[in-house]
Amino acid sequence: MNIINIKDIFIKEFSVEFRQKFAFFGIFLFAATVVFLIYKSFNNINPREWTILIWIIMLFAGLNAVVKSFLQEKKETYLYYYTLFDPIDLIVAKLVYNFVFLCSLFLIILGILSVFSGFPVKDFSLFFSGSALGIFGISVVFTFVSVISSADGGNGTLMSILALPLVLPIVLLLLKISQVSVRLLVDTSVVEDVWLLAGVDCILLGAMLLLFPALWRS
Amino acid sequence: MGVKGLWWKVAGVIIFIFVLIGGLCVPLRPGVTSSQPANAKNGDTLFMNVIGYNTHFSTAQNHRAWLKLDSIHAIAAKDFFGKNENEAVITFYLPKDLPTSAKVRPLTLIVDNELDGAFVQPNALFLTIEDNPTHSSSSWTQADLTNLSVASGLKFPYRNILNETIRNTFFHVALWFAMFILLIAGLYHAIMYLRTGDYDHDIQSASFNRIAILYGVLGLLTGSVWAKFTWNTFWTTDVKLNMTAIAMLIYLAYLVLRGSSADHDRRAKLAASYTIFAFIALIPLVFVIPRMTDSLHPGNGGNPALGGEDLDHTLRLFFYPSIIALSLLGTWMASLLIRYERLKEKIFLKS
To answer: Nearest residue on chain B to A169, judged by CA atoms?
Structure first.
């Protein structure tokens, strides 16, 4: 693993993303529209709905965002990468990029949703640490699945079919943690859930790092 | 393939027939289905109507019954009248004095005769204590709870609520065990494919996974029917059910992935990686999360796991063979799929 390479790929991803502003802002526009639509249809969102909605919006907006990260690149670009970088460097850079991207997406959704329907979170450290771990897990799964679907010929539907069942356990844990953090539930063992989430993240990350080089060779 | 290679298929069929016949025909041990009344006061004379299951209340001769308060305190029945095989009226004189000062105490009913052996109904009677009883335990310690009879013959334990559905253990629980064995076989071949690149491993991995998915669906169906008879609903919010549903979704996505690509090599590589990833995602789903939350299933939220009284020797006698039989039958089904896929591959390569 080479930190400089990872940084280079990360910066390249970032500049590519910002050069195509329409795609980048399209996702944020998507998030904002959905939040507004939901706000208008619910009018008054209670904390339970709030926690559910934020993760559902996050899931679908994130899916849209990550699909592009591998699908937008051409076969020739891959060949070029193959000659330049170690596969581990490439996947780690993509993962870090997706994680940063999803985190900022999450903060934006959170901001818009808070403006429209308040911010019911009581336990900030629990909410944000849980969310960070959960988003990390989601980005691992999405990155891995986008590798698979891009290797399968750039099929966007395959991505959502494969990714949604795989992130379900993470999202369920996230929902529980955020429901505890808005004090909908009282659960003294919620710290165990946070650790479990971290464990799931580590296992998925390990699996991805092990499997990616094999997938990459094709 | 000669006769030599057939032995395990024959063994699988024979063991499964053994489990089917034994598991469905061995009778249940006698037990108490219900008893009336459920409440009494101290000092009452209690006529308790007991409805039994598989009992011999009129043919057996030496009936004895007790109401047990705790490990040393119990009272014996004064009279036992068997109306018919499954109905009896037991008379108790509830003493005025009590060894405890609690307001309401649950009592356990123990019935014993030489044909059925001893059997119990926990919390059969709630004893309400009225006007300051004298604290004395003399009338509660005279009962002789020794020389309990033991029923002969092979019988499954009687459990309230479960009743006859306890036989589903051999199918529902064993299906999950067999499914995991098949999934591990699929995982092994997926890893071997990634290591060797031998296309045959991909065929084997896919076949084992498919049969495992079939077992998973059957496991959900048998579990659903079982839940209807014990929890009175086909589907509950129980963690284990929902985590299993997610696991099935993950593996159904595997089938979609296999159907998505026409390029064999690429499909094989993707499917193998996905198998490994899915299996790893499955471990917290099925083994970790359900153990951390309350569940209606045994082994979760303080319920006893397999073992102890829930899985006694007679159940084990059919449960373990059932796992072996279902795994062997699953391997057989997978091997048929493997042969079919190999032939398809051969024809594909020729044309």
So the answer is: B285
Q: Is B6 a residue whose pLDDT tops 60?
A: yes
pTM for the full predicted model: 0.79
Torsion of CA A162, B192, B286, B161, to 10 degrees: 120
Residue B308: pLDDT band (50, 70, 90) is: very low
Locus of tokens 């027939």? B17
Both B180 and B279 in a single domain? Answer: yes
Facing residue for B273 by CB, picked from A172, A189, A211: A211
Q: Is residue B87 part of a domain?
A: yes
B262 and B228 fall within a common domain: yes
Select from B246, B321, B40, B195 the least CA-distant residue to A213: B195
Q: Is residue B151 part of a domain?
A: no
Distance from CA of B40 to the nearest CA of A (A): 39
Q: Which of B29, B27, B30, B46 is nearest to B38 (CA)?
A: B46
Average pLDDT value for residue range B5-34: 87
Nearest chain A CA: its distance from B249 CA (Å) = 6
Chain B closest CA to A46's CA: distance in Å? 22
Residue B11 contacts A where some CB pair is shorter than 8 Å = no
Question: Is B23 part of any domain?
Answer: no
Which residues on neighbouring strands pair with residue B50, listed in sequence order? B35, B88
* Residue-level pLDDT at B206: 93
Q: Which domain holds residue B261?
A: 163-350
Residue A75 with chain B: CB contacts under 8 Å: none
